[in-house]
Amino acid sequence: MAEEAKQKRRYWLWAGIAVILIAVFVVSRQLTQDEIPIHAAVVARNTLRSTLSTNGLVEPVKNYEFYSPLATSVVQIPVHEGDTVKAGQVLMQLDAVNARARVSSALSGLRAAEASLEALRQGGSLAEQQTLASNLRRAKLNLQQAQSEYKALSMLLSSGASSPSEVSASQQRVLLAEEAVQSLEQRQSKPYSQIEMERAQASVSEAQTALDAARAVLAQTTIVAPIAGTVYSVNVGVSDFVEQGKLLLEMADLKKVRVVAYFDEPEIGRLAIGQKIRIVWDARPGSEWHGHITQLPSTIVSYGTRNVGEVLVAIDDSDEGLLPETHVTVTVTTASQANVLTVPREALHSEAGKPYVYRIEDGKLVHTQVTTGTINLTDVAILSGLHEGDVVATGSLSGMALADGDPVKVVR
Fold first, then answer.
1. Using CA atoms, how far apart are residues 142 and 179, in angstroms rounded to an integer?
2. Which of 76, 277, 312, 317 has the most CB atoms around its CB within 10 Å?
């Protein structure tokens, strides 16, 4: 009996404790059931910047690329990638034997064309002039003989010693002899037509052009630096055979580089010339460069799976740390407002196109319309509707929708 009574007392003890716990839970729930736990933020003044980030490619402002002017071999490369060179310094020497042969051939062709032109101006070659002079003397002699014969026959005609037909035939021979003399004299004074002279002059011009081209090729077999700069790419080695048009070497002034930034099509409308740019390169963590937009895209191009506009960015830093053909991350500041009231983006709502927030006043939510300014990924500039120090709701912990007048409890 004693043991049974003892068990009953334990039972009623545990039952009493359970009732007390339930009562405490019910009372606390009744006291807090209408308060929605939320996160909140204080309206404060900040400098708000709106930015866009994308990838870009570094390139020299002025790049110098050197190609092989003919099929030949590499004789000498006195520089290496990364070398700093002076203007006029030899960078590479190609085998110039064939180039010199071309110059000699072209020079020979020019001299032949010049000789032909000079011969025309002088009335032909010496042999042609001698032949023409001999033919003219013979024609004049024939004319004298024809004239003498005609004169004699004309005198005999009056005495009946010659017939009219003989006189007429003699006269005809005189006319033919005169025409032959005139033709040869005209040819001697102007032996060639204007068309023949123009053709000869054109031949000289063509030969001169061929010589200039051959000399240019010969000059290109010795590659020299046009400016002081850095050799950043050497694509061949000594003794390599190179085809005509083969890229041999690249150099540039690495103090003057720019970035081609690839912005997605929807973002281009937010860009403007002069906007500030921040550039980072993964190969040099902790370093950054600065620049500004100098040229906006004139068209949209395909870049992998993206449709982008190519934006040119001038580098304002003089550091030579950025190398051509390196991939960088570009961040542009599209808008900036200083000393402006800001709230987190999660606090901003919209109804019928009108922005509003829930201000917390006396433990309740107050629907408050606002005017917004610059918006970035995390914050919104508030131009009107709030005051510094106001507290606004940024969202409920349970995901419950908020409404005007709801009692809330701010959870820090």
1. 11
2. 277
